[in-house]
Amino acid sequence: MAISADDTPAPAGEQHAHVIVIGAGLSGIAAAVKLRRGGITDFLVLEKADRVGGTWRENTYPGCAVDIPSSIYSFSFHPNPGWSRNFVGQPELLSYIEDTVEKFRIAPALRFGTELLEAAWSGDRRRWVLDTSRGRFVAQHVIFASGLLHEPTTPSLPGLDGFPGDTFHSARWNHDVDLTGKRVAVIGTGCSAIQLVPEIQPQVRELYVFQRTAAWVIPRLDFRVPRPVRRLFRHVPVTQRLFRGVSDGFLKALALVMRRRSSARLLTPVGKGLLRRQVPDPELRAQLTPDFTVGCKRLLLSNTYLPALTRPNARLVPHALAGADGSELIAANGERVEVDVVVFGSGFEMRHPPIAERIRGRDGQLLSETWKSKSPEAYRATTLPALPNAYLLLGPNIVMYNSLLALAEAQLDYVVDAIRTARARGIDALEIRPEPFRSFNDEVQRGLASTVYNTGGCSSVYLDEKGKNFVTWPWSTKRLRNGLARFDIENYATTPAER
After folding, report:
1. Which of 337, 308, 305 is nearest to 323 (CA)?
2. Residue 390: which of 421, 425, 424, 431 has the closest Cα?
3. What is the DSSP letter of 140?
4. 135-144 and 166-169 strand pairing
5. Which among 193, 379, 196, 202 is positioned nearest to 298, based on CA atoms?
6. Are 97 and 26 in contact (CB under 8 A)?
């Protein structure tokens, strides 16, 4: 049953809560459960949409599924013995999120149709004042759980506005458009594109895939979980924990291999072997072979993407899209193809996260202005100077080859400890001091200098306009978790509550 908006009127005046969570996706729901388990019950979760789910509510394109094993891509406090596959699809995952809301009784704290317009720290009140589409909210602590994959990006290119056919982003799939028998162009070859291309290829008349740069594709170890195994997981929970542990260990080993260029190269034969098996044509295979080290960009997992490109109605355009002239799309090399529908698989805005344009700190400056001048940074991917009592989930330099949900949960243990510590010690405000903030981020950049993310020979979304890596974590999952295991109040400036 969908957890969706009710018809309650917008609140009059201000609404107050000890903690407010922004966003009701996976990390926002995890925040709500972790807060309650930590004894913090005075909280609200503000969600701009009319339903929970975040990116798994928004992304409904054909073939949409997780690219991390389902056993890992799930809440630690709510293991699901009933996953139908090792890599489940979007509908099943969305249903799981809604089941979590119901099981842990989060619905009363949810405020749907409530979009954050601006969150500003009030030094006089020592509180966050949040202006929303449904009035003003005030909180002592704010957890920003708006997610990494939130704002789709589409290129601004000459002539696209005049394209006469249908155009849409994969994250905003237009289900009213029937692709059957049409000429369709997919722009981009990232995680979403490699899932949707094999799904739509059999139904379209002609399929053109525009590829700016080739990407490494390795097999996806997907399989249907037999019903007897699901029953075993349900009745003997330790077996599911063991399976989760094995999957987690595999990802940790992969992350260890991927950190260094020398070891990441060990995976090159896997990618080249898949290309040899699935792409017989040597010219097409050459166009699909990357010229950078495995891991420099995010690995793509698929068993069906490469075969789809070899079908008679599919054609790879090994160049970026440069523009459009009527119904013709123009590639960077001048090549033209005529199509009826354009699907943008062009990713999300990560360099300039939209949430940063709505957070105003103690100094009156927007976070987006700070990050524009200095590149995105945070202390342990979570806190920032001039933002007292504010916590980012999945902030800068936290991504690695592991479940983002598991990383967010590690952050939430730190956040809940911070809020509990402030309450226990009578502290109104906690703010990371500039010295540990600078020291931590300098150490992260030094650690990244020798990783494949920085030295693998590619231009990726991990790097901002200045060439600085603001996305990935350079070390092990264990080191990240250890750093977030205890709230280190000694590194924070504190403001005692007024008596």
Report:
1. 337
2. 431
3. E
4. unpaired
5. 193
6. yes
CA distances from 428 to 91, 127, 356 (A): 42, 8, 23
Q: In what order do the strands lie in the sheet with 328-331?
A: 321-325, 328-331, 336-338
Torsion of CA 405, 410, 411, 413, to 10 degrees: 130
Tell me the whole-structure pTM to 2 decimals: 0.95
Confidence of residue 4 (pLDDT cuts 50, 70, 90): very low
The pLDDT score that the predictor gives to residue 73 is: 94
Closest CA to 148 of 27, 254, 44, 50: 27
- Indicate the DSSP class of residue 267: G
pLDDT(450) > 60? yes
- Give the CA-trace dihedral at 367, 372, 374, 375, to 10 degrees: 90
For the record, the structure tokens of 11 come out as 């609140």
Residues 6 or more apart whose CB falls under 8 angstroms from that of 472 comprise 397, 399, 400, 448, 451, 453, 462
pLDDT in tens, 367-378: 999 999 888 999
Per the DSSP assignment, residues forming a β-bridge with 469 are 463
Closest CA to 379 of 350, 414, 354: 414
CB atoms within 10 A of CB 164: 9
- DSSP H helical ranges for 341-487: 367-374, 404-424, 434-448, 452-455, 477-484
Residue 47's nearest CA partner among 110, 1, 134 is 110
> Is the separation of the CB atoms in 428 and 126 below 8 Å?
yes
Checking if the pLDDT of 99 tops 90, the result is yes
Q: Please give the Cα distance from 448 to 450 (Å, whole number).
A: 6
Nearest C-alpha neighbor of 68 from the set 267, 243, 248, 240 = 248
Please choose, from the candidates 164, 200, 154, 208, the residue with its C-alpha nearest in 3D space to the C-alpha of residue 179: 200
Q: Please name which of 9, 19, 22, 7 lies closest in space to residue 131, comparing C-alpha atoms.
A: 22
CA dihedral 290, 291, 292, 294 (to 10 degrees): 40
Task: List the structure tokens of 398.
Answer: 């936290």
**By percentage, how much of the chain surpasses pLDDT 70?**
98
User: Of 187, 182, 150, nearest to 168 (Cα)?
Assistant: 187
Q: Distance between CA 370 and CA 275 in Å, rounded?
A: 44
What value, to the nearest 5°, has the Cα angle with vertex 135 and ends 132 and 137? 75
The string of pLDDT tens digits covering residues 453-463 is 999 999 888 99
Helix H or strand E segment including 359: strand 359-360
499 CB neighbour count, 10 Å cutoff: 4
Using one digit for the tens of pLDDT, what is the confidence trace for 474-492?
Answer: 998 899 999 999 999 999 9
Q: CB within 8 A of 93, min separation 6: which ones?
A: 56, 66, 70, 73
Q: Map out the domains of the chain with their CATH numbers.
A: 14-151+349-496 (3.50.50.60), 160-221+262-344 (3.50.50.60)
How far apart (Å, rounded) are the C-alpha atoms in residues 324 and 283? 26
